[in-house]
Design a protein that fits this description.
The complex is a heterodimer of chains A (about 800) and B (about 180).
Chain A (H helix, E strand, L loop, with lengths): L28 H5 L15 E7 L5 E7 L1 H5 L3 E6 H4 L28 E2 L5 E7 L2 H8 L3 E6 L25 E9 L2 H7 L2 E13 L7 E7 L4 E6 L4 H12 L6 E4 L15 H13 L3 E4 L2 H7 L2 E13 L5 E11 L12 H9 L9 E8 L14 H19 L3 H6 L10 E2 L5 E2 L4 H12 L1 H13 L3 E11 L19 E7 L5 E5 L8 H13 L6 E4 L17 H28 L6 E4 L2 E4 L5 E4 H10 L13 E6 L9 E11 L6 E11 L6 H21 L28 E6 L17 H18 L9 E2 L3 H7 L4
Parallel strand pairs in A: 1-12, 8-29, 10-11, 14-15, 20-21, 27-28
Antiparallel strand pairs in A: 1-5, 2-4, 2-6, 3-5, 7-15, 8-13, 9-10, 9-12, 13-14, 16-17, 18-26, 19-20, 19-25, 22-23, 23-24, 26-27
Chain B lengths: L3 E8 L2 E8 L4 H8 L18 E4 L2 E4 L12 E3 L1 H7 L3 H10 L8 H12 L7 H7 L11 H14 L21
Classes of the chains: A alpha+beta (about 800), B alpha+beta (about 180).
Chain lengths: ~800, ~180
């Protein structure tokens, strides 16, 4: 048995023919490669109609009257519904969590009632036989607006002269948090050098290639609502649809098949999606909504948009003695439900300075309302900002005291033997590997040789830069993230594993597949636990009727939490199967094992009985089993991390790029990542999560920006004007790992989905500044780093 | 606006004779009228490449053409190309290299890459990147896609794969004993 392996130095994961640590191809690729995926935008149901929303052209306006008569008479129209009418079917919500003390927000409706608070907020819904007919009719809806002064600039949102968006809240302050650890003032007084900078992070968004999509099907005959939705959290959505549509949870089934990209965009409650479900209930037939790209830009959550005033104190010997930040962010007019829009700011306070052993840290963040699209959690929530601020300060400080940027880090990164320990902000670290990771990165990129190349190219007036960013990353969240704040968002997850009548293994899991490879990882884990080949394992996800209750996919939890539940369930089923086999063979279950789909003697490997034969006897000839013996060929296990609130991961990235001082263009040459996500179940999938994440971080660093004017109008809300990383501008990305498993689970896996995005912007920022250093440029502390920003730093514009 | 016109096309080798709304784009027609949902709609303004199709053998954007413009033309979609087996090696390379995650860009990416691979010789990584730069992928970061296309180009030219290329199951011993 596996436990005896410990004596030989092997872990429980080191099973015969283990799939743990193998780059097994994902089981769901063939259909996606043949154009046979099933995305929500592909779903068609009998009697299905389509909804299109009339959206406010104003950032802030009273809705005086809505005339729906002409639209109602238009061809193919089934219904035209206002916010007030829909409010009879769907109750409003307020996006607050009790553990973010003081966080406040106003009730938000599925369709605006009386007032529109951002450009793009839905003010009426038109339902018709086709999307095109609904769009035709939407043009005929007459909305009488009384424009109000918009609150656009977060910097002035709290000024006494600024209008208050929600009068009942008293002001535009959604949330404020302060933190003061150690002796910050003393540290700044005693510092040999202090660097101050203001970092500005532009608003950007997820741009999932498949826009948000939902089909809602209320069947009054069954009194059930079936929702087909591209979502990361089916059970959370089940609860929310039920709660706001006056149903019991068991009356709602959420189905999630293929999802065309999520990245945190599809884990929130969207007013237009709630409206679609409410319309189905109202009209008693299936209603489909697929956001078009233009409305995606004004309704998918935005993220970042932080202004961080930051300081670092250092001694001449390189010791970092203090960090201080003052963060401000504008989140739009509502805190997004149910995860709230206070989390990103809260994370920044938690994470700044995180990789370093520095006890003195002061932080303040203020989260303000404004009349722009809502902001909420997007991939790596807060981490890219915290890492860019911290690492930007570290490199500026190194330059100020004349020390190599890596030497300064080596003198301050938390020592690899210092664990367990806590950060100045109180984050608990079980075990990280900053120094091992940095050493590995230096070797991976051949640091010295790149520095020599940089030096020689500079003599030819070619300006290349190297920039680094160390980071920590929250993964495997416990209830500390949302549950303790009152949100019904599960931190535990479950797996149900069963042996079918032909000896195949079916695993039903509460975590979801968004393309990251969840189903492959679960299949690997279950195949390993059961001792069967992976071809015999089938995974079922994304169906609240058929999967154990769970949280889904967010905060890099699918492999670490969903994987552990599947591992435990697989082990339990193996024990159950061996009990059946033992009763058939009149052997001791403890002396048997399953290998390659065969029950064998554990000590000799002698083949005893095939799995399909065990299944056959258990299902069809139970009469031949001993009296009183009942085969149990299904096992369920659940898992939630308990020893630590989060399993922190760590890593370090480097960017190698070239800046053209004449044009301000940045050319990325290569990117390097070393990260530590604990046990690696599938190396290829982990590497590709890192690479994809890096490129999203590069997008933030160089290209992506939701540009608003002073009236709260989004100026570039389409794919031609909003730049995303394309193949030609992206570099090859080298990825390597250090493996420090968490002891909080048997698998030891931590999350890997967000690490790339966390570190990449800081690394690129530092590399650009490194490239420009010999030209006497002012340090750039703004993202995206457009050619205009570079030329301004060079004093050319 | 809603006037219909008769069109006759060859879609994946099948004769299609349909009455189509004049304003309907080619990709909408394929998806909604013919049920060929492998071509995806990502932006509807010709930027993202998710709706990439073959029109008389050439790469086009299905969202920038009206179905009525294609009367008399031959259309090939991912479904047809996949069923015919003509890009089986490319599909296999994408799977082996995990050159797709959510899969939404994949049909368009495959058709674009397939056209590049019809040209003689092994393209450089820079050339592969340039040719794929009209197809947006939010998930992969492109590196794996470039690897997969490069691997197929080398295989078709009978050049052995480079070290580390196309990391697949057999390459990793895992933790098995």
């Amino acid at each position: 048995m596996q436990e005896s392996n410990k004596a030989s130095g092997l872990s429980p994961l080191d099973r015969p023919n283990s799939y743990i640590g193998r780059s097994v191809p994902r089981p769901n690729l063939a259909r996606l490669l043949a154009g046979r995926g099933q995305f929500v935008s592909d779903v068609v149901l009998p009697r299905m109609v389509h909804v299109c929303f009339v959206r406010s052209p104003h950032a802030h306006a009273l809705i005086r009257a809505i005339d729906t008569a002409a639209a109602g008479r238009a061809p193919g129209v089934v219904a035209v519904v206002t916010g007030a009418e829909l409010a009879n079917v769907c109750t409003p919500w307020v996006g607050v969590l009790t553990h973010l003390k003081g966080l406040k927000s106003a009730p938000q409706h599925a369709v605006a009632v009386a007032k529109a608070c951002w450009q793009g907020e839905a003010v009426a819904a038109v339902v018709a036989k086709t999307r095109a007919l609904a769009e035709d009719a939407a043009e005929l809806v007459g909305v009488e607006y009384e424009p109000l002064a918009p609150v656009a600039d977060a910097e002035t949102a709290l000024d006494p002269g600024t209008p208050v968006i929600h009068a009942e809240l008293g002001d535009n302050l959604a949330f404020e948090r302060g933190l003061d650890a150690g002796e910050v003032d003393q540290a700044f007084r005693d510092a040999d050098a202090v660097v101050e900078a203001t970092f500005v992070f532009g608003r950007h968004t997820g741009v999932t290639l498949e826009p948000r999509a939902i089909v809602a099907d209320w069947n009054p005959g069954e009194a059930r609502l079936t929702i087909y939705q591209g979502t990361q959290a089916p059970h959370m959505m089940q609860n929310i649809f039920a709660k706001h549509l006056g149903l019991d949870e068991h009356q709602v089934r959420v189905l999630c098949k293929d999802v065309g990209g999520s990245f945190g965009i599809k884990v929130h409650v969207y007013a237009d999606e709630m409206a679609t479900a409410a319309l189905s209930k109202l009209l008693k037939r299936p209603v489909k909504f697929v956001a078009d790209r233009i409305e995606s830009f004004v309704s998918d959550i935005h993220a970042r948009d932080h202004r961080v005033k930051a300081c670092i104190a250092v001694k001449n010997d390189g010791r970092i003695t203090a960090f201080e930040i003052d963060d401000l962010t504008g989140i739009g007019p509502y805190s997004v439900y149910p995860r709230t829009s206070g989390i990103e700011a809260n994370q920044i306070v938690n994470l700044v300075g995180g990789p370093y052993a520095c006890p003195n840290y002061r932080a303040r963040t203020r989260v303000v309302f404004q009349n722009k699209n809502v902001m909420c959690q997007y991939r790596a929530v807060g981490h890219p900002i915290a890492a860019a601020v911290t690492e930007g300060l570290v490199e500026l400080a190194a330059r100020k005291i004349g020390m190599d940027v890596l030497e300064l880090r080596k003198r301050n990164l938390v020592a690899d033997d210092a664990y367990p320990c806590a950060s100045a902000s109180g984050l608990k670290f079980e075990k990280l590997s900053h120094h091992a990771s940095l050493d590995k990165l230096i070797a991976l990129m051949d640091y010295e040789s790149l520095r020599r190349e940089q030096e020689s190219l500079r003599r030819r007036r070619i300006f290349r830069g190297l920039g680094f960013a160390a980071f920590i990353e929250v993964t495997n969240p416990s209830a500390a993230f949302y549950g303790v704040g009152g949100a019904r968002i599960s931190s535990q997850d479950g797996a149900l594993v069963r042996l079918d009548a032909t000896g195949a293994i079916i695993c039903h899991s509460g975590v979801t597949e968004q393309g990251q490879g969840t189903e492959a990882v679960l299949a690997q884990v279950v195949a390993t636990a059961m001792g069967v080949s992976i071809e015999r394992v089938r995974i079922v996800t994304g169906d609240t009727d058929n999967t154990p209750y769970g949280g889904g996919t967010w905060a890099s939890r699918a492999a670490g939490i969903g994987g552990e539940a599947a591992w435990q369930a697989g082990k339990a089923l193996r024990a159950n199967v061996l009990a059946v086999a033992a009763s058939i063979l009149q052997a001791e279950a403890g002396k048997l094992d399953i290998r390659n789909g065969l029950v064998v003697d554990a000590d000799t490997g002698r083949e005893r009985i095939e799995l399909h034969e065990v299944a056959r006897i258990a299902y069809f000839r139970p009469d031949t089993l001993p009296p009183g013996f009942q085969a149990e060929l299904m096992a369920v296990r659940h898992y939630v991390p308990r020893a630590y609130p989060f399993a922190f991961t760590n890593g370090v990235q480097a960017s190698w790029l070239e800046v053209d001082p004449a044009t301000g263009f940045v050319k990325l040459i290569r990117h390097f990542v070393v990260e530590d996500c604990g046990t690696i179940i599938n190396p290829q999938l982990v590497d590709e999560q890192i690479r994809g994440g890096v490129v999203q971080g590069i997008g933030a660093a160089l290209f992506e920006h939701c540009v608003y004017d002073a009236q709260g109008q989004l100026l570039n809300g389409n794919m031609a004007d909003y730049l995303v990383p394309m193949a030609a501008e992206m570099p090859d990305i080298d990825v390597a790992h250090v493996e420090t498993p968490t002891a909080d689970s048997e698998l030891g896996a931590k999350g890997a989905g967000e690490a790339g995005t966390a570190g990449a912007p800081g690394a690129v920022l530092n590399a650009v500044n490194d490239a420009l250093a010999p030209l006497g440029a002012a340090p750039i502390t703004e993202m995206p780093i457009t050619p205009g920003v570079v030329l301004a730093a060079l004093g050319k514009v | 606006m809603t006037a219909h016109t008769q069109v006759r096309l060859t879609v994946n080798g099948e004769e299609v004779f349909e009455s189509v709304e004049a304003r309907k784009t080619l990709v909408e027609f394929l998806r909604e009228d013919l049920g060929l949902t492998g071509s995806h709609v990502g932006c509807e303004h010709g930027v993202c490449g998710a709706c990439t199709l073959l029109l008389d053998g050439a790469i086009v954007r299905g969202c920038l053409l009206l179905a009525v413009q294609c009367d008399g033309c031959r259309i090939d979609t991912i479904e047809g190309v996949a069923d015919s087996g003509t890009i089986a090696d490319l599909q296999q390379a994408f799977a082996a290299r995990n050159a797709l995650q959510c899969g939404f860009c994949t049909p368009g990416m495959l058709l674009t890459a397939a056209q590049l691979l019809e040209e003689v010789g092994v393209p450089s990584r820079e050339k592969i990147r340039a040719r794929l730069s009209g197809n947006y992928c939010r998930c992969t970061g492109y590196h794996a896609i470039v690897d997969a296309v490069e691997a197929v180009a080398r295989a078709r030219a009978n050049i052995p794969p480079q070290q580390g290329e196309g990391r697949i199951a057999e390459g990793d011993p895992g933790r098995g004993r």
